[in-house]
Design a protein that fits this description.
The structure holds two protein chains of two kinds. By secondary structure, chain A is an all-alpha fold. Helix content of chain A is about 55%, strand content about 0%. By secondary structure, chain B is an alpha/beta fold. Chain B is built from eleven helices and 16 strands. The mean pLDDT of chain B is about 95. In chain B, the strands form three sheets. In chain B, strands 1, 2, 5, 6, 7, 8 and 16 form a seven-stranded mixed sheet that branches. Classes of the chains: A mainly alpha, B alpha/beta.
Chain lengths: ~150, ~525
């Protein structure tokens, strides 16, 4: 990691791989992995705002790199080993990863939100059939009448 | 330093200050309002961007401590299980409020008489009723007449749509035979008085770019300014100064450049909320008032009331379209509002249904509850919650206790060097019992509506957005700070019009009552102009 809090190309690749294991791609739902989506750019921007993040990211990505080179285990076992070697890495990334992923237009489009901000178009809603209030009306007054007591 | 003396100086341009300014404008007096915040441009609201949810963690967060804006002041709430929320701008906290807009009930003004606790108010529901009506028209309240939990009332706009989520939850209430009703909402259900109707975007808690939500920058203020009221922004009042005659002389404040200024006034009106108002009074010390201005009763800052909240959510098997619609305005239930001694507590609470969460908050909520794991099962966990979660908040009546209070922090200051408020607050045994009862009932009704699993958070920590009671009204100067029309017992040209003057809290959102009170006080002042200081 450089002094100006930029990731090296290798670190960037490792971060992307870790992010793809935090939120993997889901072809059935048409959803990309977090690394593939570019969430790493958001993490890197956060690193520039909050240099303390380096204290977690640097050793965490180094641990991932070493373990992934040495291991032929599947993803689950690999990430379990990373969790043991660098326990702060995933918990630190989760908050930023979830935010960046779930506000990305590609993801919100797949969730049925059209991949656009809520305003100015908003969403249409049908008027309600308020006859469902009939049982409430039938029960009559619910508030205390205080006039005779004051 | 200004040599001008204005007739009326209002401190604070939020819910109360705006309504008061509008009402007083027809007197043609020289009226000035000082506001420490600024206008918020509607194009700057998060709802126009993809990052609208995440900005609740930065510049549009509820806590002034987290936002870091120059317009805010810090609040030391480390000694409170409930953390304070407020916003400083033209419109005040109405910029971020949910705009759920219930009235208090007739019984709320007669707590001592009916239930033997706290105190009765020095006025009653019938006295405020005409001002609730005016406020409904001015704010553009949507709702449905005929709610059996209230005396008859008319509202200018039809209710907001219940949506799939609202109808699903209503089914649960009907199954149990409990009261519910479409919420009174200060959100225009269609175009109203130059404001666009609600487009169901669900971003209410970070401001409404549409202008459908009735923040006072789009309701009262444009009309007040048109009638000649002046409003100066980015002006933070440090203290109210006292003249030799024992009357308020004016204020000392810092302008946008941090320069100290003086503003003289014939009448000073505090509208800074239940924390900001005692902060200024306690910081206005003199030989006459060594414990803070207007504080001969010793009650300034004491009897702070929040509403203890609980949040209860349920997961449903079918999509609810919960991302659509006004965030906090769906349906309300007041089945448990009035006292029933068999429940083990006095007074009561409201249920207010929430819409579902957006994509980001669904993920973060699922992360915190453990319902959404990271890794291979992530999408299954997320898919189970997305658009299938509905929730409700419980708003419990908070009874006043002198140990719950606002004081001045001995060290913490804002960026102008003014001491910050410090909060000491604890939940009473009555509140704890009420929370316990309400959470159990909330789970019951969510399950009746079809929820398969429920999660609860009680008390809800960030829910200190209703700030009341710290300069209470009353007839006796020994036991109250202001009289029944907001005038200080001790300083006769000083008025308080915000939530500070509440005697009790009720179990509903207070903004409608704050504004009705400020309109009532303005009207009383206008009727008594000839002998205002007698």
């Amino acid at each position: 990691m450089s002094e100006d809090d930029q990731l090296s190309d290798d670190e960037r690749a490792h971060l992307s791989a870790v992010l793809d294991r935090i939120i993997p791609p889901c072809p059935a739902r048409g959803l990309p992995g977090a690394g593939e989506l570019g969430v790493g750019d958001t993490i890197e921007a956060e690193l520039r705002r909050n240099p303390q993040l380096r204290l977690v990211l640097e050793p965490g990505l180094a641990a991932y790199a070493a373990l992934s080179r040495a291991s032929t285990a599947d993803d689950t076992d690999l990430m379990a080993a990373v969790q043991t070697a660098a326990p702060a890495l995933v918990p630190t990334l989760l908050f930023h990863t979830y935010i960046a992923y779930y506000q990305h237009p590609r993801v919100t489009a797949q969730l049925g939100l059209h991949g656009r901000p809520p305003h100015p178009i908003g969403y249409s809603m049908d008027p309600s059939d308020l006859s469902i209030l009939d049982p409430v009306r039938l029960r009559g007054q619910r508030y205390r009448d205080v006039t005779e007591r004051t | 330093m200004s040599d001008e003396t204005v007739d009326v100086l209002i401190i604070g341009a939020g819910a109360a200050g705006a309504a008061f300014a509008w009402s007083m404008a027809d007197t043609k007096m020289n009226i000035l309002c000082l506001e420490q915040g600024d206008w918020v441009k509607h194009d700057d609201y998060p709802g126009v961007g993809a990052d609208w949810e995440s900005r609740q963690f930065s510049d549009f967060g509820l806590s002034p401590n987290g936002r870091g804006r120059r317009e805010d002041y810090p609040v030391n709430d480390s000694a409170s299980p409930i953390k304070t929320s407020m916003f400083n701008a033209v419109g005040g906290s109405t910029i971020l409020y949910a705009a759920h807009f219930p009235r208090m009930h007739p019984s709320d003004f007669r707590v001592r008489t009916l239930d033997g606790v706290a105190d009765d108010w020095p006025l009653d529901y019938t006295q405020l009723e005409p001002y609730y009506d005016i406020n409904a028209r001015m704010m553009g309240v949507s709702g449905l007449a005929g709610d059996p939990a209230y005396p008859p009332k008319d509202l200018p706009l039809p209710p907001l749509p219940l949506g799939v989520l609202g109808e699903t939850l209503a089914g649960g209430f009907n199954k149990l035979g409990w009261h519910w009703w479409p919420s009174d909402s200060a959100i225009a259900s269609h175009d109203y008085e130059g404001r666009g109707g609600c487009v169901n975007a669900g971003t209410c808690l970070v401001g409404c770019p549409q202008g459908a939500k009735a923040s006072t920058d789009v309701t009262y203020w444009p009309l007040a300014l048109r009638q000649g009221v002046r409003l100066k922004t980015r002006c933070r009042v440090r203290e109210i100064t006292l003249g030799a005659n024992g009357m308020a002389e004016g204020v000392l404040y810092y302008d946008a450049d941090g320069v100290e200024r003086r503003q003289r006034a014939e009448v000073v009106v505090l509208a800074c909320n239940g924390i900001g108002t005692p902060r200024i009074l306690l910081n206005s010390r003199s030989a006459t008032f060594p414990d803070g201005l207007a504080n001969r009763s010793g009650l300034v800052g004491k009897r702070l009331m929040f509403h203890p909240y609980a949040l209860v959510r349920g997961v449903f098997p079918e999509p609810l379209e919960g991302y659509k619609g006004a965030t906090g305005c769906c349906i309300i239930s007041q089945e448990f509002y009035e006292t029933d001694p068999s429940r083990g507590f006095v007074r009561g609470y409201s249920f207010e249904m929430l819409r579902g969460m957006g994509p980001v908050f669904t993920a973060l909520s699922g992360m915190s509850t453990g319902q959404i794991p990271w890794g291979p099962d992530h999408h299954d966990g997320y898919g189970r919650l997305w658009d299938r979660t509905a929730g409700m908040v419980v708003i419990c009546e908070d009874l006043p206790e002198e140990c719950n209070r606002v004081t001045l922090d001995p060290e913490l200051t804002d960026c102008d060097g003014i001491p910050a408020p410090k909060i000491d607050y604890r939940l009473s045994e009555n509140s704890n019992r009420m929370l316990e009862h309400s959470v159990a009932r909330a789970v019951e009704v969510l399950q009746a509506a079809g929820a398969t699993e429920c999660s609860t958070e009680s008390p809800l920590k960030p829910a200190g957005w209703h700030l009341m009671g710290t300069a209470r009204m009353g007839i006796d100067p020994e036991t109250s700070v202001v009289n029944e029309w907001g005038r200080s017992h001790d300083v006769r040209n000083l008025f308080i019009i915000d939530g500070s003057i509440f005697v009790t809290s009720g179990g509903v959102n207070p903004t409608n009552t704050i504004q009705a009170l400020s309109l009532h006080i303005a009207d009383t002042i206008k009727r008594n102009l000839a002998n205002l200081f007698d």
